Amino acid sequence: MTTIYMDHAATTPVRKEVMEEMLPYFTQYYGNASGIYAIAKESKKALEKAREQVAAGIHAQPAEIYFTAGGSESDNMALRGVAEAMKAKGNHIITTKIEHHAILHTCEYLEKHGYEVTYLDVDADGKVSVEDVAAAIRPETILISVMFANNEIGTIEPIAAIGKLAREKGIYFHTDAVQALGHVAIDVEEMQIDLLSMSGHKLGAPKGIGAIYIRKGVKITPLIFGGAQEKRMRAGTENIAGIVGMGKAVELAVSELPETKAKLEKMRDRLINGILTAIPNSKLNGHPVDRLPGNCNISFEFIEGESMLMLLDALGIAASSGSACTSGSLDPSHVLLAIGLPHEKAHGSLRLTLDIDNTEEDIDVVLEKLPPIVQRLREMSPLYMAQK
Q: Which residue among the candidates 325, 339, 354, 363 is catalytic per the annotation?
């Protein structure tokens, strides 16, 4: 049975072009980039080429790109690094209630170490208000961290407006762009972003490689100490094959962005409209327009998301839900609760995320198979049967 994969927000397959670019750096050009002999120089050359590719993808300078092990490390580096470097100036950080746990848990850690964090509400579409950000600023505020686009509901935040506000106030602005990179246009100069987190496996590169943009002049303390790699900002022998893969993946994604965006938006809108039309008591989560091209997140009343996922999986459709059932927790998504969904509706949510390998035929199959699944589960619900 062929799998219809619609969980690209969780991870993506490594692209063929990316794998081909990476392969020589496992067995042929395997030198340590810190060496001075010829084979090491090949690794160093590849490292710097990838740095240029990633920088070009967000309109940064290559010297402002530092490679990490992934988005979570980049988020930790941004928040903890700035907090420690700027503690003489202040101890206040502003973020939102819908951030990825890499941000929220880092903020919780910082709160235990003398920092204060303001967690801003978002509206029913998942957008934070720039006015609320402005109102939360204090004299001791040192960092504002707002994700570029939400990983669950796909809402794109007003990043340029927040960046302008932060720059005017002399406050560092960080954005977690793990979901946005390669899917929407990013210009760190125009948007006045000071720090930006990235991850390779969300856009066709392998897992275990990420990067962080740190604008020249930003004060930040490293998290990892050891060698002099990454200009002493991130010690450890570089993962050259992974870095090469990320560089190529960013280059491809950014060059193909206009075409890919148009394709995904067309399929996404057809999927959303088809589900909402075919299934009563269903609701789109996230902003109807300002959302990631491939994101479809819908809540269904009177059902549990875990059961829906298992039945979809039995039919070869891979998706995710609004509760963290796979992590051993039955708590509903903090994002869905933050946009005002009651627990029972948050539990009955489905996230379908598309990418370039999805087809119109995939959409056909989901629109055929999903309504009977929802109806079957509802007929097992006393609440649903009572309201019929």
A: 325
